[in-house]
């Protein structure tokens, strides 16, 4: 065995042992999630005009999701969030914030569809429709607003009003207004989810979310 190879193997062994000690300490201390010091202030995560899918008087827990309707990972997260909403019905608040990504052609158009639907008190219906149909319009080479107009018709909305609202500059400004808050909260991609200000891991499982929510409900 050469001297250089011996040194290399020795370093690898030290690193392996170090990682093992770190893993044991992490497990022993229960350090598996964000600490209280990492909480993002509520005023950054929730604004007066933020959209609530669930809102309960006296709720001890607020879940906030920054999302992009064209993001495949957000579509993957959607059924998990629906399960969480069902599991904690009546106990938690659930807030949606827009964070359209520049690489998605329909990111703003789909958010505009949700916002236009909100003006007809149908935000939740369009929210669900967009994720359930994402494969039909996601990844298009150019914006497809006509697809979203079709969804508005399917949902029984006033199509003329919906079309006009989707083109309203104020509506687009409302969508873009969520981005600075997301950036301030440390959002770099979607979905990014917070539980009482605690940032969750990327695409968290139902168990990960439940563990944090349960802890917050008990505190």
UniProtKB/TrEMBL annotation:
<keyword id="KW-1015">Disulfide bond</keyword>
<keyword id="KW-0732">Signal</keyword>
<dbReference type="Pfam" id="PF13462">
    <property type="entry name" value="Thioredoxin_4"/>
</dbReference>
<dbReference type="GO" id="GO:0016853">
    <property type="term" value="F:isomerase activity"/>
</dbReference>
<keyword id="KW-0676">Redox-active center</keyword>
<dbReference type="InterPro" id="IPR036249">
    <property type="entry name" value="Thioredoxin-like_sf"/>
</dbReference>
<keyword id="KW-0413">Isomerase</keyword>
<dbReference type="InterPro" id="IPR012336">
    <property type="entry name" value="Thioredoxin-like_fold"/>
</dbReference>
<keyword id="KW-0560">Oxidoreductase</keyword>
<feature type="domain" description="Thioredoxin">
    <location>
        <begin position="27"/>
        <end position="218"/>
    </location>
</feature>
<dbReference type="GO" id="GO:0016491">
    <property type="term" value="F:oxidoreductase activity"/>
</dbReference>
<feature type="region of interest" description="Disordered">
    <location>
        <begin position="197"/>
        <end position="219"/>
    </location>
</feature>
<dbReference type="InterPro" id="IPR013766">
    <property type="entry name" value="Thioredoxin_domain"/>
</dbReference>
<feature type="compositionally biased region" description="Basic and acidic residues">
    <location>
        <begin position="205"/>
        <end position="219"/>
    </location>
</feature>
<comment type="similarity">
    <text>Belongs to the thioredoxin family. DsbA subfamily.</text>
</comment>
<protein>
    <submittedName>
        <fullName>Protein-disulfide isomerase</fullName>
    </submittedName>
</protein>
């Amino acid at each position: 065995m050469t001297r250089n190879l011996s040194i290399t193997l020795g370093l690898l062994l030290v690193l392996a042992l170090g990682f093992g000690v770190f893993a044991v300490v992490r497990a022993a201390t229960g350090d598996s999630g964000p600490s209280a010091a990492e909480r993002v202030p509520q005023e950054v995560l929730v604004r007066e005009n933020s959209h609530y899918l669930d809102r309960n008087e006296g709720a001890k827990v607020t879940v906030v999701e920054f999302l992009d309707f064209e993001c495949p990972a957000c579509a993957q997260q959607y059924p998990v969030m629906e399960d969480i909403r069902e599991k904690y019905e009546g106990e938690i608040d659930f807030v949606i914030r827009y964070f359209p990504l520049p690489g998605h052609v329909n990111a703003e158009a789909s958010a505009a569809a949700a916002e236009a639907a909100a003006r007809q008190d149908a935000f939740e219906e369009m929210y669900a429709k967009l994720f359930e149909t994402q494969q039909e319009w996601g990844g298009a080479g150019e914006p497809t607003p006509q697809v979203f107009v079709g969804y508005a018709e399917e949902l029984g909305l006033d199509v003329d009003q919906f079309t006009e609202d989707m083109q309203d500059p104020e509506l687009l400004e409302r969508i873009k207004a969520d981005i600075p808050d997301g950036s301030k909260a440390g959002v770099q991609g979607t979905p990014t989810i917070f539980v009482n200000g605690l940032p969750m891991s990327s695409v968290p499982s139902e168990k990960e979310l439940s563990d944090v929510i349960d802890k917050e409900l008990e505190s």
